[in-house]
Fold this protein.
Amino acid sequence: MATALSVKHLIGIKDLTADDIELIFSTAENFKEVINRPIKKVPSLRDITVANIFFENSTRTKLSFELAEKRLSADVINFSTSGSSVSKGETLIDTVNNILAMKVDMIVMRHPKAGAPYFLSNYVNANIINAGDGAHEHPTQALLDAFSIKQTLGDVAGRKVVIVGDILHSRVALSNILCLKKLGAEVKVCGPLTLMPKYIEQLGVSIELDLKKALQWCDVANMLRIQLERQDLKYFPSLREYTMMYGLNKNILNQLDKPIVIMHPGPINRGVEITSDVADSEQAIILNQVENGVAIRMAVLYLLAANNKN
Ligand code: CP
């Protein structure tokens, strides 16, 4: 197995090798043990300063990165657009250069525009970690999702995973597909054809329009929300109709001839893509995903920082 990551930045899963991903998983397993101890802190990132810069809203990713950084003993600063000088016309590069002038070593960035973290990585020396860029990639979400499958089912290779919902606007879908395929899983996407990217099959996935068939096929169903904030067109007649066709409820699960694992990256729109009785059921590993997110982000921060020392 590799002992160091092959990348300086984590911009997307597309840049990682399967060995990189396995290294992140084995490191996260160690950190998961650490964060379940009474004393949850290790000194690995002492004297490293990390800036979390969020140009778009977040609950899980922002808190999870901040906690991961603090568990590793990093110094942490947080920036979000509301209340900042971005509203006065300051550019991304100027904003980041001002943050870097304060001697920041690593930047965790969420941005509504696809490609923003890549753009930044060409201009700054700090390690850049993409915390979600537009409808492009959300690499740490895909890593924690695949890690959660491994922790639940023992392995990812050979598992059948269906990703259900708004594939067109979802950075979680693209990063999950790339990650799961690199690890040897079989992947289907399921949802209305209007929410499927035109060339999705070129990623080695197949499309299933019938939710019940997709669920009967899979070991794991990852339910995505409809990204209404990224839709300026009508892709289906109404949310009610979407729920009738693609919403997951207990009745559908009870018709399957085997139990399946239910995942959701959050935030959940209860009663739209998933009902509460499914989201809160034993089959759902949604909060395990959140717990694993801290360990995965600790692993990514630790391994990128270790590369700087080499
Ligand atoms: N899964 C996820 O990215 O959630 P947040 O938008 O709350 O960070």
Strands lie at 49-54, 75-80, 106-111, 127-133, 160-164, 186-190, 206-208, 220-223, 261-263.
